[in-house]
Structure formats: structure tokens, C-alpha cells
Amino acid sequence: MRKKIVAGNWKMNMNLQEGIDLAKELQEMLTAEKPNCDVVICTPFIHLASIAQFLNQDLIGLGAENCADKDKGAYTGEVSAEMVKSTGAKYVIIGHSERREYYHETPEILKEKVLLALQKGLKVIFCIGESLAEREAGKQNEVVKAELEGSVFNLTAEEFRNIVIAYEPIWAIGTGKTATAEQAEEIHAYIRSTVAERYGNEVAEQTSILYGGSCKASNAPELFAKPDIDGGLIGGASLKAADFKGIIDAWK
Ligand code: PEP
């Protein structure tokens, strides 16, 4: 059985103390009532080392939202995969549409980031997804396949086992517009078939594919009930412990 995962992406929200408070609150809630899925929180870099000090990572995995495409050296302001790993974090989000769009991260850059993250022993949550114009032109399958081919299908099957895919239609991120469960299932099944073509059925069956885009407690149960949706990558609704817990509870 592949892993069911609910992962939070805090983005550029909360100062250090607020982040610590949120992680503690979530940990208390999940200690009192154990989740039926893996739970991950991906936080700004500056939160990682402090949160790693107290987080029970058997209960809540810790991750970064990005890492550098270079190993080390004179890259002012960058944070390497090794630095992320050294905080105690176990995951990193790579390829989020906000990074592709606002920071011009190309498939080649993302490919380097993925390789470095895996080399340092991090698990990668790799994001893919089409824009509204691409969906309206019926190009969503083409787009997600190209994103996989451009940055992760160069990996060996062994390496690919450390990839979690997050399908996030750009038109649904932070907009309040969610893909319907049917729309999401259709493309998740397509993504899994693409992974199967490249790595075979066994790897495809083991690959967790998360849905992201205005996922909340009210729509998570319907989305997660679909056979190819293995959980969610959650932005806005991961910023309050009760909201995030509501989504985690969709697996109950
Ligand atoms: C995200 O950015 O990963 C995301 C899914 O955001 P939101 O849940 O706010 O749409």
C-alpha cells in the first residue's frame, strides 16, 4: 500500500515564534489523536532548526519549501540541500508553481535541485500542474508529463522511490477554486500511468500523488476518496492547526 500523506506548505508566512507555536499546537493535537496518514509540515528555512528540536518526526515530518540548485560555495543568500538536511528536516518541496513563476525556476534548475536533495538524503515533494490557459486548451496532460520528463524522469527507479508527486493546478492554488474530485482523479490516474510507462507498474503503484489547490476540510474527504489521490499538499489551510487537522481527519 502506498503512503497517504497530508503535507502543509506554510509559504512565506509566520515569524519564528508564530511558527514554533503552530508546530507545537499541531503536535499536541496529533499526539492526543493519532493521524491515519503521514503528516508533514514544510516551513520557511529559518523555522527548521528550531522546530526540529521538539518535533516528534515519527508523528510529523519536517520539510523545507525549497533548496538551492548548487551544492555549496559563493551563492549569497542561498540555502543548500545539505543545510536543510542538517537541521533535521527530511523533506523538501521542489518545483512549486510560485517558484517556477516568480523565481524563474526552469526544468533544468529543478532537475539539479532534485538531484542534490536526493543525494543529501531528503525526500522530494515535486510539484507539477497546468495554468488555467493550458487547462482551457486541454493541454493539462501534456504539461504535467513534460514537467516530469524535464526534472525527475532522469532518475533511476531506486531514486524515484524518494519522490512524492504533488499535482497542483495553478488555477486552484490560493484561489478558492478547487478541481472537482473527478477532474483531479482523471489527471492523477494519468500521472500514475506516465510513471508506470517510465518505471513500471510496481513503482507507479508505490508513488504517492498528492492533490494541491484550495484543499480544505470540507472538500478533502471527496478528493481523498478517489483511488489515485493519496493525500494533499495544503497551503492556506495549513496555517491554522484546527484547519489542517480537519484535512488530516479526512483519512479517518
Ligand atoms: C500550495 O500552494 O501548495 C497550495 C496548495 O495552496 P492552497 O492550499 O492555499 O491553494
Q: Write the CATH homologous superfamily.
A: Aldolase class I
Shape: globular
Bound molecules: phosphoenolpyruvate
Q: Percentage of helical residues?
A: 40-55%
CATH topology heading: TIM Barrel
Count of distinct strands: 8
- CATH architecture identity: Alpha-Beta Barrel
The averaged pLDDT comes out at 97
The assigned structural class equals alpha/beta
Distance, first to last CA: 16 Å
List low-pLDDT spans.
none
SS field, number of helical segments: 12
Radius of gyration: 17 Å
CATH class: Alpha Beta
Would you write up a description of this structure?
With 252 residues, this protein is α/β, with parallel strands linked by helices. It has one domain (5-251): Alpha-Beta Barrel (TIM Barrel), CATH 3.20.20.70. It is 44% helix and 15% strand. The protein contains twelve helices and eight strands. The protein has helices at 16-32, 45-54, 81-86, 97-102, 107-119, 132-136, 140-151, 157-160, 181-199, 201-206, 220-224, 241-248; strands at residues 5-9, 38-43, 61-64, 91-94, 123-128, 163-167, 209-212, 231-234. Strands 1-2-3-4-5-6-7-8 form an eight-stranded parallel barrel, surrounded by five helices. The longest helix has 19 residues, at 181-199.
